[in-house]
Amino acid sequence: MALFEVSLPLAVLFVGFGLTVGIRFGFFGMGGSFFVTPALLVLGHSAPTAVGTGLAFVFWTSLVATVTHRDLDHIEYRLGLLLILGTTLGIEIGRRALLALTTVGLADLVVSFLSVVLLAAVGLFVISDGRHPAIETDEPVGVQSSISARLERVRVPPTG
User: Fold this and answer.
1) In whole angstroms, what is the distance from residue 78 CA to residue 151 CA?
2) Which family does it belong to (predicted)?
3) Cβ–Cβ contacts within 10 Å for residue 36, how many?
């Protein structure tokens, strides 16, 4: 029996993997192609297919997570809009770079290498962060950079 032209055991594996990534996405606020793209590369998919599938996965999981966090009032819309601007430009640059690498036959190698570097860097950051426990105090955090203070003053509908 096949589901979406994939064998049933492989479909179950992907659903289980999606569940695992979804839990991480909801808990840590990250997931998506961070886990999906390397997994698809390991399973033998080409870099462009792995990246595109990872982006499609991120789109839908982000939509669900955004609605959930909106209901919990956990979204800073102004910051999100600024991130979207940078992300849009970054996606276009990344798309062009991936196409250029595909043309010369280096896409799989470069995407795999950068995935390993990124995962290692995040792992080292988490280990470093875990070695320095947060200082517990009754005082409110309240330390803001001038950039974050200016961002909070920007009025963006519907919050402004």
Assistant:
1) 7
2) Belongs to the 4-toluene sulfonate uptake permease (TSUP) (TC 2.A.102) family.
3) 23
- DSSP assignment of the chain, as one string? -EETTEEHHHHHHHHHHHHHHHHHHHHHS--THHHHHHHHHHTT--HHHHHHHHHHHHHHHHHHHHHHHHHTT---HHHHHHHHHHHHHHHHHHHHHHHHHHHTT-HHHHHHHHHHHHHHHHHHHHHHHHTSPPPP-SS------HHHHHHHH---TTT-
Instruction: Please give the pLDDT value at position 3.
Output: 54
* pTM, to two decimals: 0.55
Residue 90's φ and ψ, nearest 5 degrees, are: -65, -40
Are 56 and 36 in contact by the 8 Å Cβ rule? The answer is no
Domain boundaries along the sequence of the chain: 2-131
